[in-house]
């Protein structure tokens, strides 16, 4: 089915309200995009995140009279008369198939490969995680996930318990299990993430060693030898008291989802309880690791 795309520019404060107006004008979906092409934060599961200068993009049926849509929007208090906009025809594609065709097996560290579940593995002797992320975040293509996978591949996980805080697709928890961890615990706020993690654990034959909890249901006094949290800088700072208690004394902590400009601020939130390692950086994103002192 052919589509028409309407792109408008807005501020982060007004973007969501403008998106509602696009829906009222007949748009079948609305997305938000950073208008400066700066690295876009990956959202927490279930979260819509807006940026400072935001493009609001509405998708319309190709039969829609866009002149009528523009005339309707010109009455909006959120837009000035004669507002700048761009209307584009969108090629009709099988978007899911195109995404699947471009998701290839990827190697992380020395042993670990993340492989789409619909492709053949390149090295049967390697540690292979077969992945279908579904609607949850986490394929390994983003630098934050890549940094975490490389870290897990480089530490001794044999017999350890690992907590994946904000587990998304389950990629980090499952990778830890395939790399030798005895048990993993995945925690997330989104039921879709729990479903995706469970499905991927079954696909990798590790479901008997993976426990999954919605954040509101996680057990009290939960602790592990290794804790990894690939979320965002803001939540990492705000949740520092909660995340800091999860590693055992002498346990390891790995944090990502942090831009280089945010890394020191996040590290400062954990320095009291952790001996922080040198910060690792990849494509403007960072990984913060450390050892719990007590």
The CATH superfamily of the largest domain bears the name Vaccinia Virus protein VP39
The beta-strand count equals 15
Which residue ranges are poorly predicted, with pLDDT under 50 across at least 5 consecutive positions?
37-52
CATH fold name of the largest domain, please? Rossmann fold
CATH architecture of the largest domain: 3-Layer(aba) Sandwich
What count of structural domains?
2
EC number: 2.1.1.-
Organism: Providencia burhodogranariea DSM 19968
GO molecular function: protein-lysine N-methyltransferase activity
Keywords: Cytoplasm, Methyltransferase, Ribonucleoprotein, Ribosomal protein, S-adenosyl-L-methionine, Transferase
General description of the model:
- The chain is an alpha/beta fold.
- The protein has two domains: 3-90, Alpha-Beta Plaits, CATH 3.30.70; 143-292, Rossmann fold, CATH 3.40.50.150.
- Helix content is 27%, strand content 32%.
- The chain contains nine helices and 15 strands.
- The chain has helices at residues 12-24, 66-73, 95-101, 143-154, 171-178, 191-203, 233-238, 240-244, 263-268; strands at residues 3-11, 29-34, 53-61, 85-90, 106-108, 112-116, 127-131, 161-165, 183-188, 210-214, 224-230, 247-259, 274-276, 280-282, 285-292.
- Strands 8, 9, 10, 11, 12, 13, 14 and 15 form an eight-stranded mixed sheet that branches.
- Helix 6 (191-203) links the parallel strand 9 and strand 10 (210-214).
- Its EC number is 2.1.1.-.
């Amino acid at each position: 089915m052919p589509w028409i795309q309407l792109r408008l520019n807005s501020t982060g404060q007004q973007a969501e309200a403008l998106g509602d107006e696009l829906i009222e004008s007949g748009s079948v979906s609305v997305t938000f995009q950073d208008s400066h092409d700066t690295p876009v934060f990956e959202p927490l599961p279930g979260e819509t995140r807006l940026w400072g200068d935001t493009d609001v993009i509405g998708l319309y049926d190709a039969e829609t009279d866009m002149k009528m849509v523009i005339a309707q929007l010109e009455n909006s208090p959120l837009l000035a008369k004669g507002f700048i906009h761009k209307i584009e025809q969108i090629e009709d594609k099988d978007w899911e198939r195109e995404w699947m065709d471009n998701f290839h097996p990827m190697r992380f560290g020395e042993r670990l490969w993340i492989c789409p579940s619909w492709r053949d593995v390149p090295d049967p002797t390697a540690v292979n995680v077969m992945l279908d992320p579904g609607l949850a975040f986490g394929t390994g293509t983003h630098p934050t996930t890549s940094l975490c996978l490389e870290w897990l591949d480089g530490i001794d996980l044999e017999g350890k318990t690992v907590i994946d805080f904000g587990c998304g697709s389950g990629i980090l928890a499952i990778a830890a299990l395939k790399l030798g961890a005895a048990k993993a615990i995945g925690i997330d706020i989104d039921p879709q993430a729990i479903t995706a993690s469970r499905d991927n654990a079954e696909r990798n034959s590790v479901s008997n060693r993976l426990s999954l909890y919605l954040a509101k249901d996680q057990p009290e006094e939960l602790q592990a030898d290794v804790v990894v949290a690939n979320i965002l800088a803001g939540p990492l700072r705000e949740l520092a008291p909660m995340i800091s208690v999860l590693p055992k004394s002498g346990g390891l902590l790995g944090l990502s989802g942090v831009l280089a400009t945010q890394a020191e601020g996040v590290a400062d939130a954990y320095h009291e309880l952790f001996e922080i390692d040198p910060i690792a950086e990849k494509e403007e994103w960072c990984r913060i690791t450390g050892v719990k002192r007590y």
